[in-house]
Automatic annotation (TrEMBL):
A Gene Ontology term for the protein's cellular component: postsynaptic membrane
InterPro entries, alphabetized: Cadherin-like_dom, Cadherin-like_sf, CLSTN_C, ConA-like_dom_sf
Signal sequence residues: 1-24
Protein name: Cadherin domain-containing protein
Biased composition (Acidic residues): 953-962
Keywords: Calcium, Cell adhesion, Cell membrane, Glycoprotein, Membrane, Postsynaptic cell membrane, Repeat, Signal, Synapse, Transmembrane, Transmembrane helix
Residues passing through the membrane, by range: 847-869
Domain Cadherin: 48-154, 156-274
GO molecular function: calcium ion binding
A GO BP entry: homophilic cell adhesion via plasma membrane adhesion molecules
Region feature (Disordered): 902-962
Topology of this chain in the membrane: Single-pass type I membrane protein
Compartments (UniProt record): Postsynaptic cell membrane
Amino acid sequence: MSAFCRCGVVLTLGILVAVLGVEGINHAPKIIALDDEHRDVRAFHGIIKENEKIVDLSPELQASDYDSGRDGEICGYKIIRSHKGSLPFTIEVTDIDTGAAVIKVKDGQTLNFEKRRKYKFEIAAYDCGSPGLSSEPHVVHIVVEDVDEMPPVWDTEDLKIIKVTEGQIIDNIMQVKAHDGDQSPEYSSICDFQILTPNVPFTINKQGVLSNTEKLDYSKQNTYILEVKAEDCGHKLSAPLRINIQVEELCRPGWTGIPERVDYIPGSGVTPLFPQTSLNLCGQTCEKQNVKALLRLQTRHIGKGCDRDTYSIQSQRKLCGASDGVVDLLPSPQMSPWKVSLPSDDGDASDRIYAFDGKSNFEEIPNNKVEHTLTDKFTIATWMRHEDLKDDRSPHGKKETILCNSDAEAMDRHHYSLFVHKCRLVFLLRREYTPEEYNTFKPAEWRWNIPQICDGDWHHYAISVDTLQKVKLLVDGKVIVSQKNNPEIIDDWPLHKTTKVHSTKLVVGAAWQGKEKRMGQFFNGYLAGLSILRGKTESDSVIKCLNNCQEKLDFHAMDEMDTGMSIMFDSEMTEITIEGKDVNKVHNLMRKVGYMNSRLFPTPGFRNIKLETTVSCLGDTDIKLTAIDSMVVVQEARKPTITISGITSITDEELTFPHGKRIFKDINIVSRVKDDESEEEEEDNELETTEFVYDQLDACMIKVDPPLKQGVETLDWPKMLVADKGMYITTSDKGLTISGSDKIYNYEDVLRLVHYANIKPKNYNTKTFSLKCTEQDGRFQSNEFKVKVNIIHQSHEPNAAEHVKSNSIHHDVEKKLVPFKNKELNLERAEGGTHNAATAAAGGASAGMTVIIVVCVGFLAFMIILGVIRIRAAHKKTQIVKVEENTEMEWDNSALTITVNPLEEGEGSSNPYEAEELQLRGDDSDSDDDISSYHDELESSEDESEKIKDRELEWDDSTLSF
């Protein structure tokens, strides 16, 4: 064998021995720690949050073993060296082939960043060989990351009370501070602050500095409660911190203690407005200062500028004692003798207000209702509300006619006219033609330039003419003093004589152009109570009364005024000026000012009050204080209850109706105002209630159903009594209206004398009369009281029985009468409403004497029957005489009624109203006596009808002497 061969065999055997030797060796495992570039770094770095369980290692933990079988598997890792005691970690193999493993926090243990933030230890892998071999150690670095566990906590949790002066912008009101229990810079820092309270004028920055975004106003809000939260950088929020911002009032010169509103209860008299007020000048005094305080009560929005509309204008005229003969040109529809078609407010609480649009609205006054011509003396008055016509583009200004009397045809002459022109009130009065003054130049036009005409408020205007040389204007009850060229007076000739014009047209709200036959110069505004008084002028006191304001300011402390103080009032007591040098004395007097409303039922709502104050100093320097607004709120008054009662059914024979029948003979009207609390007591306990009687009415309406038939039926009233009381009557086929403010008992007197007459009662069976009364122009209304009249019809065919009965009256009298001696016949009222006659004992006389006495008495009875028609109606009461049974003297009273006029009362009536009642009822009528005597005692209409059927002899209840 060659040398080469021997070498090859030896090499082969060596390799084989080497291989066999390697397979028999147990190798130790090796931990693999390569970075991203596959370099061995021999260290692991891990990160774990303190609330997590598995460490995030880099690179991943792996190990390898070259052995095969179990010797090549990685069974686990062990921590072989730790720098600080026991560790909360364990290593868990997830793949024994690759040696992959994770480091975990041991069960039952947690990490705490605040206690330990880093861990460093060495680990080694070991295989599953027997014995198991370990790798070389590798270092592990683990960093624990903080978690935002705790919210921020305030340095102090006490309620913060901070005082801030009003009227300033403050950048640093205060600074709030908070801390966080977390230790990491990320979560231990406070990153923001928040104001949780919405809509407040404050802001807070990230440093906790609080500032206001606008000037604070103590009068609007003097306290703010803010809730603030702190937020750390992990967005955890703290508990809210409450901050109390108190706004300190900046001392401003002005009034304090003035309430925003003062409630007024009707009927309470005077209510103080500012009993606790004070005036503080904040030390802004000056040399020789003078304090002036002006208090105004503003009532322009109430009615016609003041709470004066308790009654209609017609009732106001009566209450103020106005002259008779005033003609209302704008009456309310229920009182108007002609139809008024103008648009109005349709209100019931006051007189009616009429609107004029300046284009088409007007009212023509009928010739047969109102006399168109004027006399030498007259007064024209009206309420007017008017504004300036800003869109008027006419070259000479538009004329707006309030009232005009002009030619009805052929010509355009204005006989007299009241109109507005360029915010001036103009009155034109052309004299009628007379031969004596044909060429006489006299005043014919008056032009007043006053601010009230176009200020848009209600004002009362009255023009009184007492000959052409005495013309005056009163505005709101005050005479306008004549000045130079105010009024401007224009002279003119009288109207020319003409045969073309035969009549005139009187128009409200426009002017009739007779030549063109159209209306023009339309008025734009509001009118109420337009009236004319002819033949005389109204007194200034009456006009002032019509304008009296029922609500006003009140001051009754004149005795408390010191030297140097002064107080002034306007005529309506709606303005009070207090002036003085001492501030304390000024506000002491202001505390005495009150509000009062004399109306029993005032208009509810608010009244504005304005207080203006000026401090004058030497050298013409003034300190004007801010004006203060307040209000008086008038509460709703308790309304009266008007109750009408009386007999509701009247039944009588048809023969009584041609002469008239009193419908409301026993009417009773009561008006009461009850206290609210007493009404509750009445409901609960039925106790006596607190109430007062209200004794005024202003109208009563009688309605007839079915309506009256003209020429057959009438409603009559006591004309003398109505005229004496100053009442007004309007009638129609549907009924009758009585109007005019007056006492309830006066209305009762009139109503009790209202008669219903029917000359053909046989054609009617029943009639219903409804009565309703009102107060304050319909604001308060009574119940509807109804009376039903039943007409009893009699057979009109004569029969033999009635004829015989009529002819035998004298025989019956002679048969029943017994002799009388000189004794009085006494009539006494029985308890049940009937009357008993005392019977006279028959004397023992002869039969002849008896016959003579019977004949005399019969003749006397016959004379009485003839005379009773004229004398019996003068008595208010008659009595029924009912003779007892089984008496010695017995009357056949089935068809005989005797009424004796008492001698004590004389022959005639001294009361003119009783005489008027006789005229209403008729000279030959005894209709009312059927119910006037004994019906007062009846309880119902049914009782009445029964007693009518059973009535017997009827006597006057006076004493009769024979």
